[in-house]
Write a structure and sequence with these properties.
This protein is α+β, with helices and mostly antiparallel strands. The protein has one domain: Periplasmic lysozyme inhibitor of I-type lysozyme (Lipocalin, Beta Barrel), CATH 2.40.128.460. Helices cover about 20% and strands about 45% of the residues. The chain contains 2 helices and 8 strands, in the order H-E-E-E-E-E-E-E-E-H. It has helices at about 1-25, 140-145; strands spanning about 25-30, 35-40, 50-60, 70-80, 80-90, 95-105, 110-120, 120-130. The protein has a 4-stranded antiparallel sheet, with no helix packed on it. A 4-stranded antiparallel sheet has the order 5-6-7-8, with helices on one face. Strand 5 and strand 6 (about 95-105) form a beta hairpin. The N and C termini lie far apart (about 70 Å).
Length: about 150
């Protein structure tokens, strides 16, 4: 009887842990105007406040198998939790840049952002801003950084 209760208790503990992990969404995805799927995700088992970010691009594919055709990607360090993933034309050249937004875990809730260009199956960092006020517009700050 004791063994049966311990087994049941362990099953409940693992079930609650798996559910808690599933609830925390540590990734964001968008589709570019050109059809590519962009996926940004925090590193598995890392704290929300610091760690890494993986940015992956997949070629346009069927809705049933969206992650079948990996095109490009990179892994970078991050400070803060992944807050948003955007596609916007930062430099007014007619093509979208990929913007990854982070929010610090500290009391200030500072915002940081990085902008990437996807061209010829390659991702390139083109601008970054850090320690913006919590209510700042990271897209506008990146635009300013690019134009300077």
């Amino acid at each position: 009887m004791f063994l049966k209760r311990c087994t049941l208790l362990l099953c409940l503990v693992f079930s609650v842990e798996a559910t808690a992990q599933a609830i925390v969404d540590r990734s964001r995805q968008i589709t570019l105007a050109s059809g590519e799927l962009v996926l940004a995700s925090e590193g598995d088992r890392e704290p929300r406040s610091i760690g890494s970010i993986a940015l992956r691009i997949y070629a346009a594919a069927s809705e049933k198998f969206p992650y079948d055709n990996f095109v490009a990607g990179l892994v970078r360090s991050r400070e803060g939790a992944l807050e948003d993933l955007l596609a916007t034309d930062l430099d007014d050249d007619g093509s979208e840049e990929i913007v990854v937004v982070f929010r610090s875990a500290g009391s200030g809730g500072y915002v940081s952002a990085e902008a990437f260009r996807f061209s010829a199956e390659e991702l390139t960092l083109i601008a970054a801003v850090s320690f913006l006020e919590s209510n700042a517009d990271p897209v506008q700050a990146l635009r300013q950084e690019i134009s300077d």
